[in-house]
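Issue 218. Parser rejects a valid record. Input:
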Amino acid sequence: MSQNGYPDRSHLPTSPGVYIFKDARDVVIYVGKAKNIRARVANYFTKSGDGRPKIAELRERVRRIDFIVTGSETEALVLESNLIKRNRPRFNVSLRDDKSYPYIVVTTGDTYPRVYATRSTHDPRHRYFGPFPSASSVHSTIEVLNKTFQFRKCRGPEPGRRSGVPCLNHHIGRSAAPCVGAISTEDYDKIIADVVAFLEGRVDHLIRERQAGMREAAAEMNFERAAKVRDELSALTYVRDKQQATIATEDSFDAFGAYAEGESACVQVFAVREGQIVNRDSFLMDNYAESPAEAVALQFVPQYYGYGSAVPREVLVEADEPEESFVPLEEHLSELRESRVDVRRPRRGDKRRILEMAEKNARLGLEHEKLIEETQRNQVASTLDTLREELALPRLPVRIECYDISNTMGTNSVASMVVFQGGRPAKDQYRKFRIKAVDGPDDFASMAEVIQRRLHRLKEGDEKFAQVPDLILLDGGKGQLSAVVPIFEEFAASAEFPDIPLRSLAKRDEEVFQPGRPEPVILRRESPELHLLQRVRDEAHRFANTYHRKVRGTEMTRSVLDELPGVGPTRKKKILEHFGTPEAFLDASLEELEAVPGLPGRVAREVHARLHR
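Output the parser choked on:
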């Protein structure tokens, strides 16, 4: 630290690159890019900062400054985007729950590419389109695609199954069946090229091709082919007619409109392709540093496109900066597109109108979200207050922890701890337990073990269990409650231990039991208080079952493959890589097993027989 209490900056270079602010716990709290790292960082420690409201707080929390030198501003931009995604720093603008946004992937790195929804890490060999604001929008898009384009839907990099019989999708016109040679590689590549064109918004281009193809087929008296092309043309025209033509030119661009208020922001992306608005997506952003809307939009652009996403020829943003400052972003997007991309701030005309429309929708989107949040907060506060009265709790149950046990006839026994904070799941605080001291199917003893371990971790000051719950809820009835009460009494004997209310929720009649009271509390079936407890209980049940399936699947997979003749380490690795998860392997059909690369048909049949004996 320097004499004024701020971190020493003498080691910072004057080169372009990325600077990383860390707090006292060595947690990354801000990432930025600069043409000159030392000069840019110095701005944060001037009396006025750089003008943003939260810079004073950021300055006080910084204890260490790291840096990464890059060869250019463009490289710094890419690195900054990657570090923000990885670390989600508090003072950076970032997508809320960005891991939840789905993409459509076209596996162009495969000989016969697939098209499917994904949330996983991007593979640079493939093309990605998105992010989409919801899973339903992804699946509806894929459904439209598959009705029009006969791409394969089977899993894995290689198509089909070893039986040599095409799947049902081929018979209903949803797959061209490259697995049995029903289509050449060249013709299949044309299907995938059309899929990519569709996802890039070039629907008019596809319609013109179909119109020409239908005329050609009709001229050749090939009426069967003409009818097929006519159906494709009808589907594409339906999609185009749902889109609203808004500008006279045939330009293609994305317009990023943003609105920021307090610690929240909204970005709306209007995608215009060949003169038509083909899509509009809305994204909510965390903006703890209270950056202005223009900065939010600029920081969001590289997050939006990510790796392999479709990039248009032109990107429109609102910014006070001179357009020369867009050069690093233009170079980055041009590299992704593999052709020139211009980033501009339109001053007039149709493009200006589209950008203003995006900004207006961003403002309305954030206002709508805040109204919903305010309504929900009021409803939750009322529900929690009524629940406090109904269950005779000493305080408002803001933090509710719920526990459940899952096993199969006493084997692979696990437990879940889920947390609801202010009526909402706090998934980063969920915890999983493997039952250690209980043999056999004894849910009561298992519940007692888990609660004992949780309270012990609280007493010992474990950071992962440091927060004191306002209510501990057990999934079960009197039996689970009776097993846990002695554990509570043991810890309550310590004067320093906090008073934690304990209740259990019996599923059959939805009765709430509490220690020392023989009669249960009966909440109204339609009451929001019971609905909240049910949601908490059901989430604990889901989380416990999911963990149990994973544990059981891993052990069963290992056991089945280890015991199966003909499956050595190499084939075992190929099977696990092909299916990705133990659950997918255990649920695999014979056809899916036969599709595993390098697995002979005989061995696939033996594996299937062992799984389903």
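Fixed in the parser; the record now loads. The chain has five domains: 17-92, 108-245, 253-296+315-329+340-367, 399-527, 564-611.
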